[in-house]
Amino acid sequence: MTLETPATTRRTALSGAAILAAAGFVAVPLPADAHGGHGGRGHGHGRSRTRVTVLGTTDLHGNVFNWDYFKNAEFDNADHDDIGVAKVAAVIKAARARLRDQSVLTLDAGDTLQGTPLAYYYARIEPITGGGRHPMANAMNLVGYDAAALGNHEFNYGIDTLRRFESQLDFPLLGANAVDPATKRPVFPPYVIKTFKQRHGANLKVGILGLTNPGIAIWDKANVEGRMEFPGLVEQAAKFVPEMKRRGCDLVVVSAHSGADTSSSYGDALPYPENAATLVAEQVPGVDAILVGHAHKEIAERRVTNATTGQEVVLCEPLYWGMRVAMIDLDVELHHGRWKLVGAHSQTLNSNAVPADPAVLKAVQKQHDTVVAYVNSPVGTSAAALSAARAVVEDVPIIDFVNFVQADAVKAGLTGADATLPVLSIAAPFNRAASFPAGQVTVRDVAGLYIYDNTLLGVKVTGAQVKDYLEFTARYFKQVAGPGPFAVADVTNAVTTTAPNGTPDYNFDTIAGLDAPLTYDIDIAQPVGSRILDLSYGGVPVTATQEFAMAVNNYRQSGGGGFPHVSTAPVVYNRQNEIRQLLIDWVTANGTIDPAAFASVDWRLVSGGQPVVIT
Questions:
Q1: Where is 243: in which H helix or E strand?
Q2: How far apart are CA 19 and CA 90, in angstroms?
Q3: CA 503, CA 495: separation in Å to the nearest integer?
Q4: CB–CB of 477/530 below 8 Å?
Q5: Structure confidence at residue 35 as a pLDDT band (50, 70, 90)
Q6: Are 407 and 344 in contact (CB under 8 A)?
Q7: Domains and CATH numbers, the chain
Q8: Which pTM value belongs to this model?
Q9: One GO MF term, please (predicted)?
């Protein structure tokens, strides 16, 4: 195989066969009359047949070790999955050892640079733009990837950080639909072609097309506006797949950071579909397989029929954070001097039954230890134990703390006539498990409360717009009759047309005032759109024309979640300050988190005007 970046492989203590068996590998036979190896010649029809196997990961999100930095313990979940590059490296290297006589590609479908304190630390605290190497580059280079698609979270820390990360990789980052606004040409390689030498017949050429998410233009607008544009996946695939075919590609594999179930993230106003992998398979002739990412779902195998050619295209999405590895087998046969696909199958391999790759662990151990020490360092104390466990059904002090710090920062940054505006703030319960103990509080405690790398903005809104916003966020609740008692699950995470799996907690925003309380009831006996009652500021009913400055995160201000008004409202504050760091800095500067200084019960759930009892 001709490679742009040679793969580095190391053996684990277990045999490749034993690791694959533990990971759930199911052997799929080659087509009849085929031999394994580099193009073994079939005897039954006088034709050569061979197989290309694609090993794939996606949505690694800064995970190298099987470690939960927020819990300061080994990662575990209800299914006892394991996570991290060190785990998938063991699976991938074992698969390569087992398939040593076959043609193998190793790909990733994006979102590597964000998601853990490990990733955050080397983007913000000790940034790689200062000269260091990113731990994900150290780890992924040892796996020996052939290529990776760009994910939307690659852009969270700015283009300079992304380009530095790109320069540290031994494989290309692909993005056919990340283009220059003026020339409309890709600013990253759109594809690469790998040539596998064959003992019999022509060499086999496999093209790898990388596609990323159009939502980057919204979600990271501050980082990419005027510098990059993100057209649709179908449109760009339709442009480059024929070009790859003209260059002699026998097979075309797409690595797409875009989900398989055509949808948008709960109302994001994108000009192109966010989750378009299935549309690429249906609408673009010449695609043979798609490694899917972005949706954080597991799809062992899905077959989609191309509307033009009738060809079945196989799609596979491995579970996020390295819990699974995709394995796509593409069987080809030589016809008149060209290789033709004759069969395809995919499966996912489980990372939790294998030992972590020691070479990857060793390469990142020092950086991991540095970050563990950082997140466990104390920054202050809490006067009381605070928990987010019930933040989805009642006004709790730990969410008041987020709103207080955000509003305080926006107020301090307002200038001119805007400096007299009363300040509000929105916050969502990102992590029900978040808590502050009474006593010493660490970076880990604060980071566990605000798990996203959002930045803070302030926008100018009217009273009518505030009410519209609250009516929109109240869609989070199911409609119920009577005051209960109800369990939390009986009233939360309502299914909507844009949230078919239930409205996520991060799309339930509450609003608080800084210098005076913003109070309101949410009547969940009423239909969506008629739930907000008695909206007042400082005890006085809010008027439709009353003006406020409202602290929001960049995800909301860019249109994330489809909340009304904030994406078009005038921006009155934007210093690109990360909210998580603002929280950490506030605790460091003030020493003590005292709920008496900022907490009050300003909203409640009611049914027909009566308080709802939630057990």
A1: helix 233-246
A2: 8
A3: 6
A4: no
A5: very low
A6: no
A7: 21-372 (3.60.21.10), 378-611 (3.90.780.10)
A8: 0.79
A9: nucleotide binding
